[in-house]
Fold:
Amino acid sequence: MQYLTLSNNKKIPAIGYGTYKSQGDDAKQGTIKALIAGYRLIDTAAFYANEKQIGEAIKEAQETLQIKREDIFLTSKVWNTDRGYENTIKAFNKTIKELDQEYLDLYLIHWPASQHQFDNWEEINTSTWQAMTDLCKDGRIRAIGVCNCKPHHLEALMQTEIKPMVNQIEYRAGFTQKETADYCKQNNIRLQAWTPLGRGQILNDEHIQKTADKYNKTPAQIAIRFCIDTGVIPLPKSTHEDRIKENLNVFDFALTQDDIDELNKVPVPEGKTHDPDLIDF
Ligand code: A2P
Structure:
């Protein structure tokens, strides 16, 4: 596993295992397979309704695979209905209980409150952030951050005592949210990519196929490497053992700037992306 660092100097794996839509025993077994394959970052969320199974997988990996808890980087997220100071503390306590863990490595705001839904959106976000800050200071979370934030959502949080260390955004070849990505890089906020494979739908794209042929790699490996080579931590999802392994087998080659330029031509499927300023959930 390769590692990067966060602004608080904590190490973070360069790739993680995504668990959205993975439910019940599939979530548990998928996470165990991922840990056996070598993933050390596991990404869940209260909204995914699989924290219990992820926690069980981590316990099992500790007991049967002798993987130490401190070698696993565990992320969860506070859901939209739990924004605000008190609710966030409660949501965190529920998450920790579901996961049966003493601490989280990373806790994220799942979606920022936006102007589209709330007049006092900025105040909501800063009070959620204050709760995350206090939990971090208490040592119950090692690092804190956000998801789906654009620069205008981040600005108020950048003025606080502990600044966001991560922004997990929708990101993939052809959809890189340049303004947000540039802002995060300039402000030392580490980017993570959700749907780095475009839910599997970009894998037949001609630009990805062409690059895959060039390196004798699979389209998924090219899409994952696109994230890594543009400085973003990909969180690919799969419950299939062969794909879980395939998606991690990306550290024996690197893309050139020409390849990245080629992959930036992947078209964005219409109506498939989520704008945090327009969501209705
Ligand atoms: P499955 O879970 O059946 O393996 P994303 O991470 O962008 O959300 O994409 C997840 C989707 O991509 C899932 O439908 C997953 O299917 C599919 N997928 C994951 N890894 C691969 C792979 N190596 N090759 C093809 N499809 C993959």
Observations:
- Residues 3-263 form a domain with the TIM Barrel fold (CATH 3.20.20.100).
- The chain has one domain: 3-263.
- The mean pLDDT is 96.
- The longest strand covers residues 141-147.
